[in-house]
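Hi support team,

I'm filing this because I wasn't sure whether my run with uridine-5'-diphosphate finished correctly. The job status page said complete, but I'd like someone to confirm that the output block is well-formed before I use it downstream. Pasting the exact inputs I used:
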Amino acid sequence: MLISLIIPIYNEQPGLAQLWQTLAEILNNCEQKFEVILVDDGSTDKSWQSITALTHTDSDAVRVYGLRLSRNFGKEAAILAGLHQASGNAAIVMDADLQHPPSMIPQMLSIWDNGKVEIVEAVKRRRQNESLLHRFSAKLYYRTFNLSSGLNIGDSSDFKLLDRRVVDQYIALPEVGRYFRGLTAWLGFHAVAMEFDPPQRQIGRSRWSIGKLLDLARSSIISFSSLPLRSLTWLGGLGVLFSIGFTLQTLWYKWQGFAEEGFPTVILLILGMGSMTLLGLGLIGEYIAEIYWEVKHRPSYIISQSIAPSCSSNQEESDSHDQIKSGHST
Ligand code: UDP
Ligand code: MG
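And here is everything the job wrote out:
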């Protein structure tokens, strides 16, 4: 049995040695063979040099591949690049910062049990060390996502084991913009959750700013649900009911011989209707933007360099000039 381990890496050079030390010890004690695919997502530090060095330390039981993306395409694209490369019977996706404890891998593999369970997902038990605002917004986001998409991604993380069948289905999906957590839930399959307490990041810092998180929330909800768009119809319907009421009232006043003074009412109505219309247009714009990026069908990522394990017979090291692979998701 070969297990692929996919690790997206973005400016993680200071922590890679510790990651490898922890990981190698655990993997060497498992009975399965591993291929570790380290995907450098356009790091600007020396992560790629460290990855190159790691590809020389591999053994027969633990092979190490390095993939370097031509620029920073984002974690989702890096995960997809790794999954395209993976040839194992199962693939495990995990972060490079040890916030996804490698010590859980043996238990994940025993739950997977050679394909009896198709997805094993690590679910965050509690969000300690996070501010009240962060926890509240996370809860609000998951509620909104679950409600609008009809999927339950709970408090799940990107730390998941996917059986080969799931990996094949995932990479066969046609969309360019990916949301790993949502899509694995959308694919279905038999999933078992494993709870864990995410430790704090020891080295480096999280790449997620508030802006990036909001953007992820926006794009994930829009790409998984047409509910916001359809809610415009309901809002429009409500507006029609209101306008019928007001029309009748105005006509009634006119027939009675006294016109309503109501100048403030007119102003309020114009402002209200104007902003509602703009909001609706904005929402439609969001969906059009999503369609715009999808129909271009640009690759999700571009590989500029790849390194196969030094111990494998078909060792290859290619650079951007002789081989540029692109990650079309079809
Ligand atoms: N990462 C990546 N590309 C990016 C941002 C992050 O490959 O553009 C990787 C990063 O190196 C790490 C994982 O994704 O291995 C999770 O990133 P981070 O720790 O910043 O996220 P958080 O744990 O705060 O969700
Ligand atoms: Mg992290």
